[in-house]
């Protein structure tokens, strides 16, 4: 799936182990994801198999974010469907340091959001951002997500429970760039 002229979203591959290694070294990514830390090839391979299992069972759509020019993976984005029976799904994304500051996360979020609302017809998408993470909040808002509030003690991050700001986009809202998304 294209995420603009410079990036594609694709299923995870065993060749993505260097991306997982870089993510495992990040001080934050392993705290908020299932990226294994400390890194080992076996744990990274299990992580990739877990992504395949999520897709196969329909619990989510995990994608590696890959730079087109050199086919180097630089991040991940996932659409998680646990709450789909209630008419909502969650999106999460992360970028390794070498992929940040290039508009990649924004393009990936815009792509997955449009696909989820338009093609899958999901009524509500939501994502959760720690209040200090201004870059991630800005990306969500640029794509059209609205901050709805603060969920106190919402998520275990490392050894502590942390607050999360919840952002949402309804199918009827349309994305921030003005393109219609609603399926009607």
TrEMBL record:
Cross-referenced InterPro entries: Acyl_CoA_acyltransferase (IPR016181), GNAT_dom (IPR000182), Ribosomal_N-acetyltransferase (IPR051908)
Signal peptide: none
Pfam families attached to this UniProt entry: Acetyltransf_3
All copies of domain N-acetyltransferase, residue ranges: 7-173
Domain of life: Bacteria
PANTHER family, A to Z: ACETYLTRANSFERASE (PTHR43441:SF10), RIBOSOMAL-PROTEIN-SERINE ACETYLTRANSFERASE (PTHR43441)
Protein name, as recorded: GNAT family N-acetyltransferase
């Amino acid at each position: 799936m294209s995420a603009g002229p410079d990036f594609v979203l694709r299923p995870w591959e065993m060749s993505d182990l260097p991306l997982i290694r870089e993510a495992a070294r990040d001080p934050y990514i392993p705290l908020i994801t299932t990226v294994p830390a400390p890194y080992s090839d076996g744990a990274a391979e299990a992580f990739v198999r877990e992504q395949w299992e999520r897709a196969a069972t329909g619990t989510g759509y995990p994608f590696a974010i890959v730079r087109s020019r050199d086919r180097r993976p630089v991040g991940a984005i996932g659409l998680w469907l646990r709450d789909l029976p209630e008419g909502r799904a969650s999106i999460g994304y992360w970028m390794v340091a070498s992929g940040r500051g290039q508009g990649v996360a924004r393009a990936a979020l815009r792509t997955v959001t449009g696909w989820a609302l338009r093609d899958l017809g999901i009524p509500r998408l939501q994502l959760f951002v720690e209040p200090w993470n201004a870059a991630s909040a800005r990306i969500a808002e640029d794509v059209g997500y609205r901050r709805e509030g603060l969920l106190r003690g919402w998520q275990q991050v490392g050894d502590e429970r942390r607050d999360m700001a919840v952002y949402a986009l309804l199918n009827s809202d349309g994305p921030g760039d003005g393109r219609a998304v609603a399926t009607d």
